[in-house]
């Protein structure tokens, strides 16, 4: 009986639904409209514009003065002898690698320990505070602490009987001094991700390994690390990509990537080429070169995640 | 399982914790120090006497009131727009069927792969030469700054976020289709379904997105610096403090900058400590730091 009734009204329902879907279809575009307009103005147009600029020479003001130069900017970048490859690109890689590796190792140890302590939330908040602090504050405070005459760190070193270090003035040290600050300010997010990963490892695994006679080091190496692999990869790769792009800390702490070119990175050089020297063509070419580097690493990331069996990637 | 008291872990975590907090303490205490102490060759963390004049000078000399207003307007503007556009798109991408939906979603995911610096140069030009605003003609010429004549320059380029759309999509997806179908059959328009059904049900995700966007935008520097070069009245807090460094008497700078920094950092820290839960959720979903 019920079946018969359904059969009778089924075609009507079908028609009604079809009408609903087409009406809905228009609404779908209306709801998407704000986002689409934005993407058109601030993403698609800029992308094409920027790609075009990278093949030109232009000071950024008068369109009639724009000059098509083909691949000249790209050639200049690699073979022009402007120091873009060394030290700027090498600095970029050292900065990205250095800050992500150091903060990863410290974060791994700290989050492994934190999950075993009381007041876990308090510690996590403490380590996270620099993440919500603006980069101008972080950079300036560390500049003050690095001060050779009366900064906190050198006074501390002197009290221990160690000599004064010119953290930001010595070209051999400056980049590493900035890396320390990057580690300090970025470690919170690594701890967050890693400690969330650690919580997902069941206690029974540790208990089983302990019964089998594993010590705490083997426990860490043979149980924790393999099970934490997805979180570890996530922290390393996203951190590395972020590190390649970031230049605001260096801008705040050194102004121009000095002393000399010793802390200059690709992002900062791009910024200066455009807004300091008025070389918009070269700056755009640099943006695309950096983008390709980031893209390659992102693709490797996807590959690694998939083969590592990480979900949702 | 019985464990020994983890004294070694406490030791390491506390030493680490001290090095996390000391720079903040140094910042706060430096802003209370007077000239004599700042020039002294001997360092001490605590000031001899507490002087409050730097905070007052910071407010006067730096025009902190103006910086605060700009920062608040820009940050709130971006947060509201990101919430609105993300929720609208999140709803359309999951609960409305239309042609090209999947392609659009893939496009939005792809936009997240484009790093921000790629758009810095062209967007600066587009903002300054925006047609028909700030005295510009139809071709974006002739004006005195285009969008950069108003605080909109600090808002519009950030008003849509691929991450925001992604987050809201994931969340709206969990609302059962039956609930929305029922409202539609009762004759509710899509807008009513959106305002009266979807918005209230997505509030937790919106809170996460809001706090995450707010803190990120409050701390934004590079774009603010660029807009500042066109229009000095649009300096935000980080920009104002960054510019202060070079503008002032170097002897005075240290305490003044510290005072200004302290003022700029405190509100966000309070906000973070209160709304941590939501912020952390956003952090774990994005995992990427600027």
Automatic annotation (TrEMBL), chain A:
It holds the Pfam family BPD_transp_1. It is found in: Cell membrane. Residues 89-301 form the ABC transmembrane type-1 domain. Its main location: membrane. The chain crosses the membrane at residues 26-55, 93-114, 126-145, 173-198, 219-241, 280-300. The keyword Flavoprotein does not apply. InterPro entries: ABC_transporter_permease, MetI-like, MetI-like_sf. Signal peptide: none annotated. Keywords: Cell membrane, Membrane, Transmembrane, Transmembrane helix, Transport. It is a multi-pass membrane protein. One of its GO terms (biological process) is transmembrane transport. GO terms for cellular component: plasma membrane. It comes from the Bacteria. Belongs to the binding-protein-dependent transport system permease family. This is Sugar ABC transporter permease.
Automatic annotation (TrEMBL), chain B:
Coiled coil: none annotated. It holds the Pfam family BPD_transp_1. It is found in: Cell membrane. One of its GO terms (biological process) is transmembrane transport. Its main location: membrane. The chain crosses the membrane at residues 7-25, 72-93, 105-126, 146-167, 193-215, 256-275. GO terms for cellular component: plasma membrane. It is a multi-pass membrane protein. It comes from the Bacteria. Residues 68-275 form the ABC transmembrane type-1 domain. Keywords: Cell membrane, Membrane, Transmembrane, Transmembrane helix, Transport. InterPro entries: MetI-like, MetI-like_sf. Belongs to the binding-protein-dependent transport system permease family. This is ABC transporter permease.
């Amino acid at each position: 009986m019920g079946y018969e009734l359904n059969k009778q009204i089924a075609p009507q329902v079908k028609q009604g639904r079809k009408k609903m879907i087409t009406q809905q279809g228009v609404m779908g575009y209306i709801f998407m409209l704000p986002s689409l307009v934005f993407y058109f103005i601030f993403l698609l147009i800029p992308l094409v514009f920027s790609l075009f600029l990278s093949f030109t020479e232009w000071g950024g003001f008068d369109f009639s003065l724009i000059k098509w130069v083909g691949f000249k900017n790209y050639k200049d970048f690699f073979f022009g002898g402007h120091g873009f490859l060394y030290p700027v690109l090498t600095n970029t890689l050292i900065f990205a690698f250095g800050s992500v590796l150091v903060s990863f190792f410290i974060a791994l140890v700290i989050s492994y320990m934190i999950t075993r302590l009381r007041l876990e939330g308090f510690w996590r908040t403490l380590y996270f505070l620099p993440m919500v602090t603006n980069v101008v504050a972080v950079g300036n405070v560390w500049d003050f602490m690095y001060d050779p005459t009366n900064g906190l760190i050198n006074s501390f070193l002197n009290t221990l009987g160690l000599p004064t270090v010119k953290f930001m003035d010595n070209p051999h040290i400056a980049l590493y001094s900035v890396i320390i600050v990057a580690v300090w300010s970025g470690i919170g997010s690594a701890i967050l991700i890693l400690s969330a990963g650690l919580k997902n490892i069941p206690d029974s695994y540790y208990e089983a390994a302990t019964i089998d006679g594993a010590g705490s080091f083997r426990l860490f190496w043979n149980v924790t690390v393999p099970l934490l692999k997805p979180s570890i990869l996530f922290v390393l790769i996203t951190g590395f990509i972020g590190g390649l792009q970031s230049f605001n800390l260096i801008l705040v702490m050194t102004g121009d990537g000095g002393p000399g070119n010793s802390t200059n990175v690709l992002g900062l050089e791009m910024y200066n080429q455009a807004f300091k020297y008025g070389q918009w063509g070269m700056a755009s070419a640099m943006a695309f070169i950096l983008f390709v580097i980031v893209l390659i690493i992102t693709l490797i990331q996807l590959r690694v995640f998939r083969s590592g069996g990480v979900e949702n990637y | 399982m019985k464990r020994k008291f983890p004294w070694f872990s406490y030791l390491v975590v506390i030493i680490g914790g001290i090095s996390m907090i000391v720079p903040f303490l140094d910042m706060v205490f430096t802003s209370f120090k007077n000239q004599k102490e700042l020039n002294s060759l001997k360092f001490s963390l605590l000031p001899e006497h507490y002087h409050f004049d730097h905070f007052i000078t910071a407010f006067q000399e730096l025009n902190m009131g103006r910086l605060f207003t700009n920062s608040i307007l820009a940050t709130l503007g971006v947060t509201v727009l990101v919430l609105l556009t993300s929720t609208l798109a999140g709803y359309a991408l999951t609960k409305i069927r239309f042609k090209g939906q999947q392609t659009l979603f893939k496009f939005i995911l792809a936009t997240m792969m484009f790093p921000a610096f790629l758009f810095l140069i062209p967007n600066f030009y587009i903002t300054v030469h925006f047609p028909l605003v700030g005295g510009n003609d139809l071709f974006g010429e002739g004006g005195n700054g285009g969008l950069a004549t108003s605080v909109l320059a600090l808002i519009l380029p950030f008003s849509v976020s691929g991450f925001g759309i992604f987050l809201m999509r994931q969340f709206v997806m969990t609302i059962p289709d039956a609930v929305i179908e029922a409202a539609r059959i009762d004759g509710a328009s899509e807008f009513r379904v959106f305002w009266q059904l979807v918005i209230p049900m997505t509030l937790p995700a919106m809170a996460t997105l809001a706090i995450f966007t707010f803190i990120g935008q409050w701390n934004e520097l590079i774009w603010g610096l660029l807009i500042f070069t066109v229009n000095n009245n649009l300096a935000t807090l980080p920009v104002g403090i960054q510019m202060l460094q070079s503008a002032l008497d170097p002897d005075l700078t240290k305490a003044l900058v510290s005072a200004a920094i302290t003022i700029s950092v405190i509100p966000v820290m309070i906000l973070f400590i209160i709304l941590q839960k939501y912020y952390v959720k956003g952090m774990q979903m994005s995992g990427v730091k600027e």
